[in-house]
Amino acid sequence: MHKIVKVEALDGYRLSIVFDDGVTGTVDLSDRLFGPVFEPLREVAYFRQVSIDEFGAVSWPNGADLAPDALHARLKNRTTAVA
Predict the structure, then answer these.
(1) C or N: which end of the chain has fewer Cβ atoms within 10 Å?
(2) Domains in the chain, start-ordered, CATH in brackets?
(3) pTM for this prediction
């Protein structure tokens, strides 16, 4: 499983992500911030508190997280489709 080594919150509820194998990209979460765990991320200041947990996953202080394997596949497929 690949780990995220860098994450940065961008405007519009997007994340810039870099993986340990060099796969990079931007993920738009604007249409995915619903439900009890993810709704607090709609507050921009809270969304910007994104970090990387000990497993190499994107996470926030309230326990919301995103699986790195799914993000990696999404970004890798996007890169492959463009190339």
Answers:
(1) C
(2) 4-82 (3.30.2020.10)
(3) 0.89
